[in-house]
Structure formats: C-alpha cells, structure tokens
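Reviewer comment 2.1 asked that we show a complete input and output for one of the modelled complexes. We chose the inosinic acid case, as it is the one discussed in the main text.
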Amino acid sequence: MSNIVILGAQWGDEGKGKLVDLLADHFDYIIRYQGGHNAGHTILIGERKFVLRLVPSGILHPGKTAIIGNGLVVDPLALLEETEQLRAAGVDVDQQLRISNRAQVLLPSHRLVEKISEANPAKVAIGTTLRGIGPCYEDKAGRRGIRMADFLDREYFADTVRGLMADHITKARAFGIEDGIDVEALVARYQEAAEKLRPLVCDTAYVLAGAMRDGKNLLFEGAQGTMLDLDHGTYPFVTSSSACAGGASTGTGVPPTKINAVIGISKAYITRVGGGPFPTEALDARGDLIRNRGREFGSVTGRPRRCGWFDAPLLKYSATLNGFETMVVTKLDVLDELDEIPVCAGYRIDGKTISEMPATVRELAKAEPVWEMLPGWKSSTEGISEWDKLPNAARQYVTFLEEVTGVEAGCISTGPERNQTVRRSGSLFEKITR
Ligand code: IMP
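Response of the prediction step:
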C-alpha cells in the first residue's frame, strides 16, 4: 500500500495533469490539497481535451474517487460549472467526487480585493491569476472566511456572506474600484448552487481515514509548484497556499506518517508566470522557440509564460523541501531543435559560488547562472517511449540533469499523450508506481 504525493518541482505548469492521469490507474483516491481555480490541468484523452481547475483529474478514470481537500479555496460557481462539464462527458460525479466541508468558499468580491493590491503602485504587483485566491486565503487566516459547511447552512451563509461581501466592496470602492456585484442576486445563486453541491460535501478526512483502513491507495496531486509555495517559494512572488509536500497533510487531514513517497515533476527546461526573479530566463529567440514549441501559454489566464533553462540549484532545493528522490522530466521533445542546450549548474552572487537558494528575491535577482553547455540532438523525440530509442545526446542531457541534481529521472515525457512516455526500468519511479 502506498500513498504518494506528486507535485510540481519548479514554478508550476510542469505537466502534472498528464502524470496524474497516467498514474491514476494505480490509485483509488486522487486528492487535491491546496490552491483553487488558479491551477489548470489540461488532459488530452484521444481527441478530447479537458481543462480541470478544481476537480482532480483522476475523476476521468471510472471507479476512482476524487477529493477536494480542506486546504483549497473553492469558487462554488466555478466548481458547479466543472461538475456539469464532467457530467455531460459521462463522468459519475455523484459517486466519484467528494468536497471537504472545511474548504474555504471563494467569492467574486475576493477578486475585487485582489484588484486593489495588484493595481496599487505602492505595492509590488505579483502578477497573480486575478482569481481572488490570495484574498480568500487572507480571510481564512484572518478567521473571517466562510467554509463549505457554512455554505450549506442557508441562514448562516446568507448573513455572513452579505457581511463579508459588503466589507470587500467597501474596501474596493475606497480605491475607486467599482464592483458591479449584485449581492442579493448572488446570495440566491449561491443558495441554488449549495443544493446541487450538498450531496458531495462531507468530512473528507474521515473518508480518507476509512479508505486507508480499507487498504486503498491515495495519490495527492499538488497544484502550482514548489517555488510558488507560500513559505518556501520566491516570496512574495508566490501563491498563498502550501504547494510543497507538507501541504498534502495539512490540506487533507491525512497524517504525515501515512505519506510514503513524493515524486517531483520538472520540465526539461523551466517556466514561470507572473513577476519575480528568474535567474535562467531566456529573453532571446530561443526563449520564444521554447514558448512556441512548448505551447507555453497559461491554461487559466492565457498569459505567455516566461521561459528559460533548467535550473539545478532550484531543483535541488525543491528535492530537499519535498523529499523526492525520483523525478519526472517532462517536455523533452520541446528542446528537439536546439543546437546546444544551456543548463544552470550553480549560482554566483557577488562573485561567490553559492550552494543554497537565497532567502530573498533581492539576492536571487543577483544570481548569475554558472552554465554548462550540453549538445542538442537535432532530431525528433516526440512520442518516443523507450530509453534506448532516445537519441544519444538526449540521453546524455537527461543523465546530466540527474548528475547535477542528484535526483533520478525515473520517467520522461515526450508528448502530451499518455503513451508518449519513457518509464525507466529499475527506477525508483517504477517501484513507487508499480
Ligand atoms: P495566485 O495564485 O493567483 O495568487 O498567483 C500568485 C502567483 O502564482 C502568480 O505569479 C501566478 O502567475 C502564479 N500561479 C498561480 N497558479 C499558477 C499555476 O497553476 N501555474 C503557474 N503559475 C501559477
């Protein structure tokens, strides 16, 4: 029996959706533990494309249970839309989805509050997804948030939501941000949504405890990425939740003692969306090439992603924080056309080589990559599913990433489809996911 966390080892968008989908057959429960509809997982099954923002992608596997844990902020209307889309595709949502009664409710007025901080010239703009995620977590930590259990309590909800939205609207108006929110119409819409969602909401910590007693396997699906973690990421250019492996416990109520292993997912290069330092960013034509070949545009916001080269110090830090010894290297095929590929093997700050990730973004902004140049392979790796069939230089490249990070590349993705995947035989990845 094993309970595994799979998460983004970089700044998000590493290809978690495909991996969760690939691994879901080995697990009974697929669980999200943090974030909200700022995350977007795209899954291609044959000709059908699903973009799931809140519901774990494992729900697309008949018989599997998908859980939205207490660590999430849930926009009930966005969730309802997603469940309707899934029902229309034939998914048995009533049987397969459970939502924690402790998850926080995200309101449209949270977006207004976010506009205040993102538009305030006196503050750094984080470049958020503008979904209201940060303000919703602020209300949670401020102990004035509304949870799914409150949402189902008609009278309590109507009273508290009016108060909370009025607060948000007053703040926004003070900054000249007009709301256009019809509070009463929204209360009525929410109450309707509550009735539809009611059968799915419960104490998911008990559900998971029962599942573990019955010997079921749990897959925890991280959203965003390690370097966007509120505590460990490139603060303040981070999201507002615990994207690291530790979040899997606090965000679900499953004790840390029950989590057996962690798998990190890393692109063969790296991207980030929004502001913040990015030591290996490629601001030249090669960055554009990666963006176009890798279709590096946000699945939620459509924003072009910033693209750059594999950053070994960052990945090593990520492995330290999350405790993974095996990783999945995704999008190797995106690098197919390059003559040579730079890899950042270390950082130099103020002339000194450093081996630790700096704590402040001011320090990180000064980091100069120590480059290693690797030869490109100049041939297509798209869809290759055997290690021995990869071109020599591509194998050399992956082996170098393993050497420079000390983390095994147990799986390599060479395209968006399930079968476009190399599983390294004898790897820890293979053992963990067997
Ligand atoms: P927020 O999560 O909307 O508060 O945004 C905070 C930061 O996290 C911004 O830089 C976003 O671009 C980034 N971010 C949030 N969700 C994702 C994601 O799913 N992929 C990549 N970046 C994300």
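The chain has three domains: 4-100+201-261, 104-197, 265-433. We note this here for comparison with the apo prediction described in Section 3.2.
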